[in-house]
Each structure stands twice: as C-alpha cells, then as structure tokens.
Amino acid sequence: MSLLKVTSPHASGQSRVSAVMRDVLLATLPGVVVLTAYFGPGTLVNIVFGGLIAVGCEYAIVALRGRDPKVAVGDLSVLVTSTLLCIALPPYAPWWLIAIGVLTSVLLGKQVFGGLGYNPFNPAMVGYVVLLISFPVQMSAWASPRGLAEVPGLMDTFRHLFAPTTIDAVTAATPLDLLRQNTGLLFDDLLTSSPELTGWGGIGWFEANLAFLLGGTWLLYRRVFTWHAPIAMLAAVAICALMGYDGGSSQSGGSALFHLFSGATMFAAFFIVTDPVSSAVSNKGRLIFGALIGVLIYLIRTLGNYPDAVAFAVLILNFCAPFIDHYTQPKVYGTGSRES
Amino acid sequence: MRQIHDIHGGIHPPERKALSRPGELEPAPLPPVLVLPLRQHLGVPALPIVNVGDRVLGGQTIAEAQGVMSVPVHAPTSGTVTAIEARSIAHASGLQDQCIVIETDGQHEWLSFTGITEWRALDAAALVEHVRAAGVAGMGGAGFPTAVKLNPGPTRPIETLLVNGTECEPYITADDTLMQCQADELIEGAQILAHIVSAESILIGIEDNKPDAIASVEAAIARSGAEIELATFPTKYPSGGEKQIIEILTGHQVPSGGIPADIGLVCVNPGTAVAAKRAIIDGVPLTHRIVTLTGEALASPQNVTACLGTPITALLTHAGLNAAPQQRIIHGGPMMGFAVSDLNAPITKITNCLLAPTPTELPLPEPAKPCIRCGHCAEACPASLLPQQLYWYARAKDQEQLAEHRLFDCIECGACAYVCPSQIPLVQYYRAAKGQIRDSEQEKRRSDNSRERFEARQVRLETEAAEREAKRAARKAAAQSKAAEDGADPIQAAIERAKARKAEQASEPEQTP
Q1: Lateral strand order in the sheet of B61-64
Q2: Which chain B residue has the Cα nearest residue A278?
Q3: CB atoms A2 and B409 under 8 Å
Q4: What is the dihedral of CA A53, A56, A60, A63, to 10 degrees?
Q5: What predicted TM-score, i.e. pTM, was given to this entire model?
Q6: CA-CA distance, A63 to A73, in Å (whole number)?
Q7: What are A141-183's pLDDT values in tens digits?
Q8: Which candidate in B313, B374, B391 is best for mutational testing of the A interface (most A CBs within 10 A)?
Q9: Which of the 8 DSSP states describes residue B25?
Q10: CA distance B394 to B384
Q11: Contact A332/B385 with Cβ under 8 angstroms?
Q12: Where are the domains of chain A?
C-alpha cells in the first residue's frame, strides 16, 4: 500500500464545467424550436453548420497550442459559443457569413486570449459585432415569419447555405426595424399597421422571447447562474422603455412589453449577459453589469444606428467589468458590514 | 428562544456520520509503543524532563511547558522511555518532530491524583494553572493552549462561554459521541471554564443533525440544575467554524484579525470542556481522547478512546483497514483534514478523526480546468470572499491585490473548492499564497532589521567620532585654560622666549671668542 498525498478538501461536489455547458445548450432548445417553427429551419442549419466549424477550429487551434484538444472540445464551451452566435445570426445566412462569424468568435474572441476562462469579451458577441460591421446587408436580412411568406424546407435550406439562389428567401424588416423607421404613426397604430407586428413583440418574436425566457428560467432553477445580471438587465430595459414611452406618440420609444419581448431581449438576458467569464464577478457587480447593459440596449435601440444593440452593449460592459469588480467587492466577514 | 442567524454561503456535502455509529464508545487497545510529540498544540514545544531508560507512570509529566504558549505532555500509561528523538508526526508537511517514545508495559500503573471539588472557592489564576499543568489544548483541531484562551486579559470582559458542539465536518462523530457519553462532565467543565473567565452565561450550540447529543446534553443540563442555554441550528458546512457559530448564535461577527474575546466570547470544543473538568475535579491530565475511525475502507468504523501517541496504523488495524493499493488516509475530516504521509505517525490532542475512504467513496480530483468565473465559490464562501478573484491573484502572485481581497480572512474551509465545476484546488492556492506572503513579510522584517542595525551602527560610529572630537577639544581647551592660568599664551610665550634669546645674542657679539 502506498499513501496518497492529496490536499484538502477531499470531497467534491457534482458540478462540472461540461455539465454547465450542456445545460446551457439544452436551455436554448425551446428558443430554437420556436425560431424554427416561425422562421423555418434556417437557425437550425446555422447551428449545425456553425457547430461543425467551431469544433474543428477549436480542435485544431488547441492542438497547435500544444494542449489536449479533446479536453478543450470536451468541455462543450466552443459549442455554446457557436450555438449562441448562430441563434443570433439571421436564418438562411450564407455559409461564409457563418464561417467568418464562428472563426472570429473562436479565434479572436477566445483562443487568442488563452481559451476558455481567459477571454475578456463574450466570444459570440465578438463574432457578431465583426459580422454586423463588416456585412450589414446580410446581417439585417432576417426571414419573414411563417404565415407572411413561404418557409423553405430543411433540404432546401441546406442547399441554400452554399447556393443562395436555390430558394427565394423572403426577408422582412424585424419589429425593431419597423419601430425605428416609424415616423408618423402613433405606437398603437404602428402595431396594427403591419402584419409583422401582431402581438406584443411581433409574430414569432414574442414567442421566441418567451421560449428563451423559459430556457433561462430553467437555468436559474439549475443554479447555472444567479438572477442578478439577467433580472437587472430586464428591469433596466423595462424602466428605460417606460420612461421613453412618451404616451405612445409617433416619437415613442415603444412600450416596455414591446422591448422586453421583441428583438433579442430575453436571449440576451439569459444567454449572453450571463456569460460568467466576461462579466462582473460579485452579485452586486452583476446587478450593475446587467443594468448598464439594459440601459445601453434601450439607448442604442432608440437613438443609435442599429436596430438591435445587445452585442455592442455587452462588449462595452465587458470592458467595464474589471472596473465594476474593483468597486463592488462584497463586505468580508469581520470587516464591519452587517454588525458593529 | 434564541434567534438563529444565517451565515453567508456554506454547502451541504453528504454527512456520512451514521457510518461510525456515534454514541458508541470503546477503548482502543493499548499499543506496544506510544510516540508522544512534544508539540501537540499550537505554540512552543514542551521540554522533556525524563531520560531514556526511565520508567514512567500513567499521568506522569514527561515534558514541561516552555513559556506561556506551550503545554506539558503526560504519559498515557506506565512503561519505559526508549527514545527521545525526531519521529514522523501527523502533520500536513509530512515532516518529523521531536517525540518521546514509551514502550508500554501493560501494567496500567498510574500516579494518584487529587482533584479540587471546591473549585468555586479558587480564583481564576489558580484554576488556569491546573488546566495548564494538565496539558489541555483545544481539542477541536487547532490545539490552541487552553490556559492562554482562558486569560483574555482585563481589557476583554467575557459575557458568554460558548461550547461549540457543531461538528459540521462530514464523517466525524467524536464530539457527537462525547456529548452523548460524557454530557455530565461536559456541563461541569463548561461551568468551571465559565467561572475561570467570569462569563455571565454559558451557551452550548449543536447542529440539528445530532438529535441524540442534543437530548443527552439537555438531560445533563437539567440534572445539573445550572442555568445553561442549549441552542440548536440548521446543519450546514462550515457552521462549526468558530467565527461562523458565533455569528449564527449571536448575530455578531468577530472583527477581522481579532479573537472572539474581542466581542465578549470564549469559544471551546466540548472535548476541551471535558478535559478541563477532569483537570480540575479529578486532577487528571489529558492523556486520552476520542477518535472517530471511519471510511468505507474500514471493516468496522467506530469511535474509540485512544491513548495520545497511539500510532495511526494501530488504530486503523483495530478498525479493520482494507487498504487499496493506493490508499488515502485523512487526518481530520474530508473538508479540512490532511492526507497522512506516514502511518507510524501518532495521534495527538488534535486528532478527532482518521478517515480511510475507498477510491469510489471520495474519488481523486480530476485534472483542474480553467476557471470560468461562474461565481459558485463566492456563493459558497462563508467569509464572503471572492475566491475566483483570489485564485487569479494567487496565480499572479499579486500580493497587493490578495491583501485587497482579504486573503487572510479565508478560513480554508474548502467550500469553494467543493463547489468548483472546474475542480480547481483553490484552498491549496490560498495556502501557498499565504505562505509566500508570510515569507516575504519575514524577509521584509529581516531586511528591516539589518537596515536598522546598519543605521544604528552608523549612529554609533558617528557618536563615537563626535565624542572623540569632543574629548580632543576638551583637552585642548584644558591646556589653553591651564596656560591662561599660568598667565600667558604658550605660543606667545615661546615667541617671547625666542625673541629674548635673539636679543641676548645680538647684545653680546664681542664676547664671542
């Protein structure tokens, strides 16, 4: 018998990085299903194609760095990055758009800094912003929801990936586009003026937001993250929207419900803002982090040049995270916090 | 009903306490050889007062305390001293330390002791001396000399004596067993300790996963008729940390860097209270303790009363160790205990548990993955630290930030590492960082010392030079003043003399032949 020297603690809990990542992937399912139901299989194809590129790229680069690529790919983090990016990309995006986005995310967003845990920015948002700035036309071509246009089949969608002419992808303005282009209509009239805007956040959009909220709530229940950042972000968006509602005039910034359930709001709150690596660390810090992202999202949506704003808002706050951390250290036991 | 406060963080690891059947207590067999380290406590080692070849009796003092931060060592049974030398001890470092080795003779010949029944008539100082002479050191794990703890000084009035019966570490049931089997002694001991520190009240805290111990202590309090409060609180690790149980039961926090006495509390382990009772009322020194032998690698996990100095291997064999080819033996519990590196090392006053897990029971840690800053550690930390940041700064050896993030408020409970999804050995990073900081502080002290020495020398040399100069000046002044007394300036006088001589020569040229 030889004696093992191991340092304490000798017991360990059940939580593992790969399980956390798997939970995040599973939690995207309701949202992906709804997007597929309303906008066709475009998002699904994005995810599959993007995932293949991402895994290949991560494997190759980690092997080049002289680390064990199986461990790196095995933690599933690269799939989370690519899946989140691909959900954010317009359905029926051309293959090169997906490829550039995924490669940017994995290489420039993550691996140049040293891989998982070392990236100061949310990798998916790095890829998204590079695409948005470089290819604004392709990036703003979101599909029309089912009911307003013919939705292509799965095989057609795959073919479309490499031969963009095979299907006549019908694109439409997103509800947020319509809102920012509105000049003359009262907000309530705007909602009834165009078929895309039916419901609180627009056809498909409302349902997708609800589905991401569902997935996010499950992650909260699984304690993958705390409520602080997502709830702070949603509250900030809602409060800003209430302040900018303007009684629903033609200058209105849109109602709080519209902002909460349109665009990428819920997706951002539960899947982007909650990225632990690039966010603030303390609960207080995460409240501030989430709230400022919410404020920025609203400001960019209503005053900026881009219809949706999650990626910019998140990247800007990623910059601020160390600064927030510095000022939000929790009171340590015995340093005169709760009791004299 | 006392208000129970919650502490920040904490975890709920599997308790596994039933395994060692708490409440049943048997004596461990007497080993042929006892190895008694001279330092079984925190502080200065004791000084041997026996020689190799001496026959010693049970209870005989074999090493005396050296100074205040030290406690004596006693022979746990009769036998012969066969060696006083460095032996392996149960310590995380795996290093050796000076030990007195006794070959036991199985005669169980003991010194006779006289206790003090009228202890209430004695003053604190006399009682403390008895506690010290009986070799009592904190039996919860740290081994702090009890006599020192009982003397918090006039600036720290003590309101409450707190008996910490939490025993929050998984597996360990030594205190549980003690509270069930020796509750009356515990109550007596607590009263003695409270008398010594002039505490107005006695409070016993027990986690609610020990209903038998609670019932037993409750009954003992009723029998004693004393006014002692028993508080129970929800089970959570690490509620048994001294700082934690104080916050749970009082709502107050021990100031950072301070001690419980700063807020009017003295906190002791139940085993320490029983040892104090025996020291005073029976006059018997501390020579035995209760040890939990547990883990699935043991055929019969149990609690035993063992002689201090019993080799670990003897106890494990007694409990039927079925060792794996690579076996981990843990001294203490699974959260804060350390892996023993030599089974011949003896148990000491701080050994509450020996844990022999199977590889499936407590699997070896997986290779650490990168920190994803998920923050689970910060949620689990009972000290409200940010373990993920500490980890980052510990790796970067950024001592300034480590201080900023209050590394030294970490109690090394292991809750952060337990919940870490990346399986990072966080506590080990903190221990290493603390060691480095202590080293560099010592380094700084040393260089400060030599600088001060150098500066002192400079000052001394300058003073000496100045003194010499002053003496010279004084001599000169003295000579001058002497000349002045003689009536003339010596130089002037010399000139005058020379002139006079010249004048003489000039006036008498003719007389030259």
Answers
A1: B47-48, B61-64, B73-74
A2: B373
A3: no
A4: 140
A5: 0.87
A6: 11
A7: 888 787 677 777 777 777 777 776 655 556 667 778 777 777 7
A8: B374
A9: E
A10: 17
A11: yes
A12: 16-172, 173-326
